[in-house]
From TrEMBL:
Protein name per the record: 3-octaprenyl-4-hydroxybenzoate carboxy-lyase
Gene3D superfamilies to which the protein is assigned, alphabetical: UbiD C-terminal domain-like
The species this protein was found in: Bordetella genomosp. 11
Location of the 3-octaprenyl-4-hydroxybenzoate carboxy-lyase-like Rift-related domain: 103-299
Family to which this protein belongs: Belongs to the UbiD family.
Ranges where the 3-octaprenyl-4-hydroxybenzoate carboxy-lyase-like C-terminal domain occurs: 306-440
Length: 482
């Protein structure tokens, strides 16, 4: 569906949902869809075509929404920019964050209703998504915590298994939240956290920014919105949360406590194992009047795009610092929005694509494969990238392979080296991966038109509507065979 690009970004979740509904991009699901599997199944079938709004999932009075960020064009629309300007706009926001603005006590929409002794499993409609998931999971919860040393906040989205009414397990990958927790644990302290569910689309996008430690992603959200983000102080800690969020769970990650979590279907479209994970004790839940619960179907477009677009913006900026000829990048959906990177390069020297490949591997450890193509190849079209590999790449000349590098711990192929039948892999051996780079660029100099891409003059500009007679028909039996 073609939609006009707004002049200003969408800074409110409900305004964005209303926009989707008004333009035929919101499916309202009749009552009765079960929270166990059916909500996820319906949302997955609609993925990338329509968001799904469940009025009373499983008979629960709180509605559930999913898939409202499941197309790249929708995300650009929410940002108020053309799709071609998405990465540049995100990069500008990341480079010029705006300090947040605290709203007065008692005025935050996210604290209109307070539950001081909450039962999360009864209060919230938390779905069970995939076949072998070990129970209901919060998948769209932004986890906000403060660095115990500096006090600066970090925002991330972590999977959270709801074990009981006041107890949840969380996966902490070796990133900033994990560093905060280890520091608190070293001090014998719990780490206070706030889990925000139902944020506006730009704050969700900002939460996935790849930034150095001690950079508050909520300030990037403000820059994306073009105004300081309104925030509210939590009731049980000094953490600040988006004031207009739908739901906030306040709690603590307990020090020196681990409980079983998983299996869970993750973004690579495989299950991560059941392991002992960190535990959140729930202290308080606040929410708006008549809140909406947001769930992300794992490994589907909303999940993949929320992770890939911020990474693309960061990777593009990183590569352009050393290689001004890099004009675009794309983390392919076939590579689960994390592992396979396509780079568009204006090549000026032989060997340059290999340097770009090595630079990309150093930019983020998740990247497993890099394909560098020329300016005449659209990196967002996987068929064009495959065409470049098919016609401009020779494995004995253009292939780069690096063994034994750090990769994603959620890539199941990285655990093979630990030995068949191994029940667990030691932490220091998790995620060991080979990296592969493909130089699919043409030579800088070549004979006549041997590497010139075939095109027909005017093919892109021609107005088909002015040439096709929409009401005309042809009787081929009456056509003369002269």
């Amino acid at each position: 569906m073609t939609t006009s690009t707004p002049a200003t970004p969408y800074t409110d979740l409900r305004a964005w949902l209303n926009n989707l509904a008004a333009t035929g991009r919101m499916a309202v699901i009749r009552d009765g869809a079960a929270l166990e599997h059916e909500v996820a199944a319906i949302a997955k079938r609609l993925d990338g075509r329509q968001a799904a709004y469940f009025k009373q999932p499983g008979g629960h009075p709180m509605p559930v929404v999913s898939g409202f960020m499941s197309r790249r064009a929708w995300i650009a629309e929410a940002m108020g920019v053309p799709e071609s300007g998405l990465l540049a706009a995100y990069r500008r926001a990341a480079e010029a964050p705006l300090p947040c603005e605290e709203v007065p006590a008692g005025q935050a929409a996210c604290q209109q209703v307070v539950h001081r002794d909450p039962d999360v499993r009864a209060l919230l409609p938390v779905p069970t998504h995939s076949e072998h998931d070990n129970g209901p999971y919060i998948t769209a919860g932004m986890v906000i915590a403060r660095n115990p040393v500096t006090g600066v906040q970090n925002v991330s989205i972590n999977r959270i298994q709801v074990h009981a009414g006041d107890r949840m397990a969380i996966l902490l990958l070796p990133r900033h939240l994990h560093a905060f927790y280890k520091e608190a644990e070293k001090r014998g302290q719990d780490l206070s956290v706030a889990i925000v569910i139902g944020a506006d689309p730009l704050t969700l996008l900002a939460s996935q920014a790849i930034m150095p430690i001690d950079h508050d992603e909520l300030e990037i959200a403000g820059a994306l919105q073009g105004r300081p983000l309104p925030v509210a102080r939590c009731m049980t800690s000094d953490i600040h949360v988006p004031a207009d969020a739908e739901i906030v769970i306040e709690g603590r990650i307990l020090h020196d406590v681990r409980e079983a979590e998983g299996p869970f279907g993750e973004f690579p479209r495989y299950y991560s194992a059941r392991e002992q994970r960190e535990v959140i004790a729930v202290d308080l839940v606040t929410h708006r009047r008549d809140p909406v619960f947001h769930t992300i179907v794992p490994a589907e477009m909303e999940h993949l795009l929320l992770g890939s677009i911020p990474r693309e913006a960061t990777l593009l900026a990183h590569l352009q610092r050393s290689f001004p000829g890099v004009s675009d990048v794309h983390l392919s959906i076939g590579g689960v929005g994390r592992y396979h990177l396509f780079v568009r390069l204006r090549k000026t020297h032989e060997g340059q694509p290999k340097n770009v490949i090595l630079c990309a591997f150093g930019a983020h450890y998740d990247i497993k494969q890099v394909v560098v193509v020329d300016e005449d190849v659209e990196v967002h079209d996987p068929r064009q990238v495959e065409w470049a590999v098919a016609t401009r790449f020779q494995a004995d000349r253009d292939l780069v392979v690096i063994s034994g590098a750090q990769g994603s711990v959620l890539d199941p192929s990285t655990t093979v080296a630990a030995g068949a039948g191994a029940d667990t892999v030691p932490a220091h051996l998790q995620g060991i991966s080979a990296k592969m780079g493909l130089d699919a660029t043409r030579p800088v100099s070549y004979h006549e038109h041997v590497f010139t891409k075939v095109r027909i003059p005017g093919e892109e500009e021609i107005d088909l509507g002015s040439w096709i007679e929409t009401d005309a028909g042809v009787d081929f039996n009456a056509v003369s065979d002269r």
